[in-house]
Design brief:
375 residues, alpha/beta, Rossmann fold, 13-stranded mixed sheet, two-stranded parallel ribbon, 15 strands, 30% helix
């Protein structure tokens, strides 16, 4: 799928490319880039933000209130635990981490039904002051006065701790406090597996909104404040179990109707076999377009802004590290750059996320369930 302004009108119901300025198609300045990333992290479709898009977005105008309950296999329905106690994250077989407000809404709607990550999950503040000392002023964790929120669930016999992070590689500043957060929550939970999950930009014309990339490969593609990591690549020891992926694809069906009407098929689950098919972590808001402006093609199957920190931390932990996987859904596909400035393309990518990010994240949350159920 390659999208343009006409696609936006059909699928979002309005011209989602209307960015002012940038007539020469120049890249955004770093401070503009950071502000946009923060806007997407904080975007909350359960509040007034969706209405501020200025139009009724087809199939998405009421947030997740139209979510269709999932018919889980017998004995494998996610079952939320009681309210956690203490300052540490609970022990778990699997630790699942997500990032943006809307990703948190989707993950909690699927895996802790009845308990929302923003409104109900427990704040996580362990060692906050010490870690926050390495964060830049104004970042989400400092403003929230916490490192994240969390809850537990069980899937079959597996104990799962779910964590919505307020610490972000892209927001915390050059000291990379996010690495300290990763190390601490892994040490708290002592999991066999860690899954980082959420949205990302599809690389290549084959991606559609809602497709899920599952990868044990992750690579830094950094050209700004984390240029020192550029090209560093990490790989977990084994692929996560895929035995329930066929069932997961069937479970997409109840809510895939809320994905873009132009989707030509049901969402796919794509397991990366090599790093160039895996996840690419950028320190800029890059996305794939038909001109390959950000030179992402051939480096990964999907781009996002943080997962390689998990790979780096696990490499540092050595033999004590858990196995890990990236489970990322395509929130915005390749953009046709032939008739749009780069600013218009950027606005389009952001608006596709705002319209469909939570619904595509339902797909990746179901894949997280499938991995846990397959252990």
């Amino acid at each position: 799928m390659v999208v343009d302004g006409e696609w936006a009108k059909r699928n979002l119901g309005f011209d989602a490319t209307g960015a002012p300025g940038d007539p020469a198609g120049l890249a955004r300045r770093p401070e503009e880039d950071d502000a946009l990333v923060r806007e997407l992290i904080d975007f909350d479709s359960e509040g007034p933000d969706l209405a501020r898009l200025g139009a009724t977005v087809r199939g998405a105008s009421t947030g997740l209130s139209r979510f269709v309950e999932i018919d889980w296999p017998k004995g494998l329905a996610p079952t939320p635990g009681a309210k956690p106690t203490g300052e540490s994250l609970p022990d778990a077989d699997v630790l699942i981490v997500t990032w943006t407000v809307d990703e948190g809404h989707a993950l909690s709607r699927v895996l802790t039904p009845g308990l929302d990550s923003k409104n109900d999950w427990k704040p996580y503040t362990k060692n906050f002051a010490a870690i926050a000392a390495d964060m830049r002023a104004g970042c989400p964790a400092l403003e929230a006065k916490r490192l994240g929120t969390y809850w537990t669930t069980t899937i079959g016999s597996r104990r799962v701790t779910l964590f919505k992070s307020d610490s972000h590689m892209s927001q915390d500043g050059p000291k990379l406090a996010n690495a300290r957060v990763w190390k601490q929550i892994i040490e708290d939970c002592r999991p066999q597996w860690v899954i980082t999950t959420g949205t990302g930009g599809g690389i290549g014309a084959q991606s559609e909104v809602g497709d899920v990339v599952v990868s044990r490969f992750v690579t830094f593609d950094c050209h700004r404040q984390f240029k020192r990591f550029d090209g560093d690549s990490f790989v977990s020891r084994a692929d996560p179990p895929a035995t329930r992926f066929t069932k997961a694809k069937a479970l997409f069906g109840a809510n895939s109707k809320f994905l873009p009407p132009d989707n030509a098929r049901a969402p796919k689950i794509l397991t990366a076999a090599t790093a160039p098919q895996g996840v690419l972590t950028t320190d800029f808001f890059g996305f794939d377009n038909s001109a390959d402006t950000y030179e992402l093609e051939g480096k990964g199957g999907l781009s996002e802004m943080g997962d390689a920190v998990l790979g780096m931390v696990c490499q540092e932990l050595g033999a004590d590290a858990p196995q890990y996987a990236m489970v990322r859904n395509v929130s915005d596909p390749q953009i046709d750059s032939s008739h749009l400035t780069l600013a218009q393309q950027t606005t389009l990518a952001a608006n596709i996320y705002k319209a469909y990010g939570r619904w595509s994240s339902v797909c990746s949350a179901i894949v997280c369930w499938a991995i846990v159920a397959g252990l």
